[in-house]
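Holo prediction — zinc ion.
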Amino acid sequence: MANSKQKTASIFHAHVYFDAKTKRKASQLRTQVKKAFNITERSRNFKIGRWHEKPVGPHPRPMYLIWFKAKEFGRVVPWLSMNRKDLSILVHPQHDGDPVIDHTDYAMWLGKPIRLRLSGFSGKPLAKRGF
Ligand code: ZN
């Protein structure tokens, strides 16, 4: 029988960070990921968020978000790991608990980790704020 303490998440985020120097690479990656996974406005398993040109929430650099369902994890994460063009990408589950934990204990990095701004980020539900 499954351990009742096991956790799961049905939604994951991949935050693609960039700066002035890497914005072009981030733009190329965005185009490529849309094509590779056939992502459109109507996609049910994927959404691509808008460009955040300024730091927002815990994210200390400009970024955009790739939202995907857990069942796509096995396709998306290997693809990103090999096509990320030296960009730093934070992959984390979105579950109903503390978003700080989602972004730290449950998070995984592709490329070089970036220190997130977690102070003042006290367990408010980020989902409603587009994170
Ligand atoms: Zn997120």
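READOUT: The first strand starts at residue 11 and ends at 17.
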